[in-house]
Amino acid sequence: MPWVLAGGCGGALKTGHYLRYGDWGATNPCKGSKYLPHNGMLVTLADATGVPTQKFGRYAGGDLAGLLG
């Protein structure tokens, strides 16, 4: 599912670029899917807004590379 983030969260997020997080194959914890679950994006947004967390839901842990400014 494509996501669009509007705004820079007060400079915490990089703006004006396109990122693709997909085709990560065998390391994908979502059975049958070749794409990254959006949980990592939610972890990154929580960190950017001052709510540090390592996990959102069952799958993701840590920030998405390239999203934070």
Topology:
Elements: H1 39-48, E1 55-56, E2 60-61
Antiparallel strand pairs: 1-2
Structural class: little secondary structure
Beta strand count? 2
Give the CA-CA distance, first to last residue. 23 Å
Estimate the strand proportion. Answer: 5-15%
Low-confidence stretches: none
Largest sheet: 2 strands, antiparallel
How many helices?
A: 1
Order of helices and strands: HEE
Helix content: 10-25%
Order of strands, main sheet, comes to 1-2
What would the average pLDDT be, to the nearest integer?
76
Described by its quaternary structure, the protein is single chain
What is the general shape?
globular
As a whole number of angstroms, the C-alpha radius of gyration is 12 Å
Give a short overview.
This protein is mostly loops and 69 residues long. Helix content is 14%, strand content 6%.
Please characterize this protein's 3D structure.
With 69 residues, the protein is low in regular secondary structure. The protein is globular, with a radius of gyration of 12 Å. The mean pLDDT is 76. It is built from one helix and two strands. Helix content is 14%, strand content 6%. It has a two-stranded antiparallel ribbon with strand order 1-2.
